[in-house]
Write a structure and sequence with these properties.
mainly alpha; Four Helix Bundle (Hemerythrin (Met), subunit A); 2 domains; three-stranded antiparallel beta sheet; about 65% helix; about 5% strand; disordered N terminus
C-alpha cells in the first residue's frame, strides 16, 4: 500500500481527512480484515506524517463501530454484530427512499456516461469474476449515487451507512462470487434506465430494492448462525 496521493500537507484538516478516507477504504475493501491492528507509528511512517493526524483520523472513524480500542492491544478492526448490521440496513433502506425527494441534483450527460461505463464493467465481471474488481465497481456506483444527493446531511448519512455496511457486504461477495456480479448488472441496468429518464427518485427506489436484496444475502450467508 502506498502513501496517500495528493495529500495537502499545508492543511492539517485535509491531512486527517485524507488518512481517514484511506483507512475507511482499506477496511471497507477488506484490505484490513477484522482483527487487524491499526498501528499509529507504522501508519504515520507510511503516510509521511506525525502520529497526531493518524490518531485523529482513527478517532473520527471510531463512531462507525468498525474499530475498537482494546487494553494492551491497541486499536483493531472489528466486524459488526448481527444486531448492528440489522440497524445499519434498516437505516440504509430508509435513506434510499429519500434520495429523490431531498434536493436531488439534476442528472447530467456525464452521469449517464458514468452509469454506462459501470454497467459494461459489471457485465465483464460475469465472465471473469474478480472480488477486488467487484468491490471497486460497487464503490464507484455509490459515489455516483452520492453525487446526485443535494442534501448535505442526507449525503453524509448515506456515506456513513455505506461505510458501515461495506465490509460485511463485500465478505458476501468474496464468498458467493459471480452471483453478486449478476445482481450488480441487474441493479445497474435499472439505474441506467432511471439515469436516461432523469429520474433521481427512481434511483432511490432502485437502491432501496437492491439494498434489501443485499441484506437478505447477508442473513443467508453470514448471519444465519448468529443471534441478534
Amino acid at each position: 500500500m502506498s502513501r496517500i496521493a495528493q495529500i495537502d500537507e499545508t492543511s492539517p484538516r485535509n491531512i486527517v481527512e485524507s488518512i481517514q478516507t484511506e483507512l475507511l477504504k482499506r477496511i471497507c475493501f477488506l484490505d484490513y480484515q477484522p482483527g487487524h491492528q491499526l498501528k499509529e507509528s507504522e501508519l504515520a511512517a507510511e503516510f509521511g506524517v506525525s502520529r497526531t493526524p493518524v490518531r485523529d483520523a482513527i478517532s473520527r472513524i471510531s463512531h462507525l463501530e468498525l474499530v475498537e480500542t482494546r487494553n494492551g492491544v491497541g486499536t483493531v478492526v472489528v466486524a459488526l454484530t448481527a444486531a448492528q448490521v440489522r440497524h445499519v440496513y434498516d437505516m440504509r433502506l430508509e435513506l434510499a427512499s429519500l434520495i429523490g425527494t431531498m434536493s436531488p441534483r439534476a442528472i447530467t450527460p456525464a452521469d449517464n456516461e458514468a452509469g454506462k461505463g459501470l454497467l459494461e464493467e459489471a457485465r465483464a465481471l460475469c465472465v471473469f469474476f474478480d472480488t477486488k474488481r467487484y468491490v471497486e465497481i460497487n464503490h464507484r456506483l455509490h459515489e455516483l449515487i452520492a453525487n446526485l444527493i443535494g442534501n448535505s446531511t442526507l449525503k453524509s448519512f448515506w456515506w456513513q451507512t455505506y461505510h458501515q455496511a461495506a465490509s460485511t457486504w463485500y465478505r458476501v461477495g468474496n464468498d458467493v462470487g459471480p452471483e453478486v456480479a449478476l445482481a450488480l448488472v441487474m441493479e445497474l441496468e435499472d439505474i441506467n434506465t432511471a439515469l436516461k429518464l432523469g429520474d433521481v427518485a427512481a434511483i432511490g427506489f432502485i437502491q432501496r430494492t437492491h439494498i434489501g436484496y443485499g441484506y437478505q444475502r447477508i442473513k443467508e450467508h453470514l448471519l444465519s448462525s448468529e443471534v441478534e
